[in-house]
Design brief:
By secondary structure, the protein is an alpha+beta fold. It contains 12 helices and 7 strands.
Length: 290
């Protein structure tokens, strides 16, 4: 059977894998879903009668879509629209729907996502496909428009940067906790200068739609504006581990209502995400500290 129903079945069997590939390249669940959907559109329009390995064909398509998206993102960033901030959210598998395998069952940490954001698009694609999904460089080369040897060099450069970040990850958790604690103390105490001391000058504060409905601004840019937003506030927030990463939570009665997810680079907070959507909160592992 090779008709539309067969193609649909084959694609759905590979959707979770394709979503994992796309997420690791893009660091965004919504963009990963867009890339997978584009792969489905291309599959539905293509003549695959001569394709021997449909899974490999789809992985290649998703990789090329992601590479285009990364290049477009880089171009937008260079036009001063601001850096892309990777999503720090880790979704856990819905046990009632096993087919909807989590993108991050063997998740990337946010620190690694930040490192990957610093790679060039070809470096990131080569590293993800080879080191995370064991694709040979002969298959990676045409995706990044390089020779196999050049694709190997791309992955090697990316690997050195990633390994450097990984070696400091354990100590990094302790330092992240210290940064978050300093932020909380400064916020509660209304200490504007102390807030500025832990914020990156180009920090971005983002709130999901539920947090916006509760009174938060959807986006705030820059250290001064973010410091002003939090000065004298966060009194009810508590230190917590959000999917194992230091953050904050407002949890009246022990029930998480708002999560503060932090992106921290070089001991500076580069992004804060306010998460209040009940569905997103249910997908998080939130452990209140102390």
């Amino acid at each position: 059977m090779t008709g539309p129903e067969w193609l649909t079945t084959q694609f759905e069997e590979r959707r979770a894998h394709l979503r994992r590939v796309a997420y690791r390249m893009l660091g965004s669940l919504s963009e990963a879903d867009d890339a997978v959907q584009e792969a489905w559109i291309r599959l539905s329009r293509a003549d695959t009668s001569s394709v021997e390995n449909l899974g490999g064909w789809l992985t290649t398509v998703v990789a090329r879509v992601c590479l285009d998206m990364l290049r477009s993102r880089k171009a937008r960033s260079e036009e001063s629209l601001g850096p892309h901030v990777p999503e720090p959210i880790v979704s856990h598998e819905d046990r009632s729907h096993p087919e909807q395998e989590t993108v991050l069952a063997d998740s990337l940490g946010l620190a690694l996502l930040v490192v990957l954001e610093a790679l060039t698009p070809p470096e990131r694609v080569a590293f993800v496909l080879h080191d995370m999904f064991d694709l040979p460089f002969e298959e990676i080369a045409p995706i990044v428009n390089r020779t196999p040897a050049a694709a190997r060099q791309l992955a090697s450069r990316a690997r050195r940067r990633v390994q450097g970040a990984t070696r400091t990850s354990d100590a990094g958790l302790t330092r992240r906790r210290a940064v978050v604690d300093a932020f909380l103390a400064a916020s509660r105490g209304g200490n504007f200068d102390a807030l500025l001391a832990v914020l990156d000058p180009d920090i971005v504060l983002r709130a999901d739609s539920a947090a916006v409905q509760a009174g938060a601004m959807s986006e705030v840019h820059g250290a001064a504006a973010v410091a002003e937003t939090f000065k004298g506030r966060a009194r009810a927030a508590q230190p917590a581990l959000i999917n194992g990463v230091p953050g904050l939570v407002w949890a009246p009665g022990g029930q998480p209502r708002v999560v503060f997810a932090f992106s921290i680079v070089d001991d500076k907070i580069v992004a804060i995400e306010l998460i209040a959507d009940p569905e997103r909160l249910r997908q998080l592992e939130v452990a209140i500290v102390g």
